[in-house]
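Listing S7. Sequence submitted for prediction.
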Amino acid sequence: MLALAPVLGPLQLGANQPKQFYRGGEAIVAFRGVPSSHEPGPEDWVASTTVRFGQAPAGLSKLPDGTYLKDAVERGPEAWLGPEHMRLFGASTGVLVKLLDAAERLPVHLHPPREFAYRHLGERHGKTESWVIVGTKGAEPAAYLGWTKDVAPDELDKWVDEQDTKAMLGNLHRLPVRPGDAILVPAGTPHAIGEGVFCVEVQEPTDFSIMLELEGFGMDRASAYLGLERELALSCVRRQAFSPAQVAELRRPAPTQGVKAALVEDVLPPAARPYFRIQRVRGGARALEPSFAVLVGIQGSGLMTGEGWHLQLKRGTTAVVPWGAGRSDLNGEVEVLRCLPPLPSDFERDDPKAVSGQ
């Protein structure tokens, strides 16, 4: 068995691209700036302790010494996660981060909310997620989010039965996107990422997806519904329309060019806080609080430093930071996404275990 490396500071991570059902991956290779030794995959799971649904150990990240991050965290959870995090989450990191490159439009799908996941899938986390757009290709890159009208159960059943992609897409809000935009996707909300969109996806740490659109993606119906009966799986679809104002509340536009930005700023709207946090951190930031964190270098280059350690960061760098690394500073002309689990006080506002009294 491989010896575990001591948790002294951040660790830079290589690619971790479990097999997927759709095309993509070239943008990830270009972003990382490292030639791929194999056929690139469209998703790179960064600092992941989450497995692909029904396909363990696919999805798990390895540290530079070959140890699974999951094993390292479970053997030293307080050093990795901190005592307050452990009190609520145990040895779960509480967050999953991916690089996602859609070389084709993803199918219309959704993810179950926490209460549904807890009741039917035995997991405290559902799968609320978010996208921070890093790059785009094509004339009109876009994402699709939430129905534009209320959709009755029999109407949704008809669309799914007939695989009426035109109806599904035609009744979703189409959101043009550009680099720097951030979008929150509440669990239960039908959505799709459009062709040519490359993003950092931050989400709850599960691989739960319910597919409404199947044709052309090589999926069977059993796997499309998480092994549940279709009627039960589709019961967690949000059928109510999102108004344009509600959609706007889920979006944060890219930072305005030329405007002096804060050294540390929240990327997502406040509604994300019970699920995860994303900070945009720029060179000059000081005394970042201790936390388990996943870092993605977005542009420039710089140096993160703490007591007894330092980490080189540039566009395309991914790294994991243990709570035990302590406070840190960021120096240089660099911008980093710092992806964090929810604070325990925020998570508890939407904890299905607490609500059920178990």
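Caption to Listing S7: primary sequence and predicted structure tokens for the chain studied. Residues 153-162 form the longest helix (10 residues). The domain at 16-252 is CATH 2.60.120.10 (Jelly Rolls).
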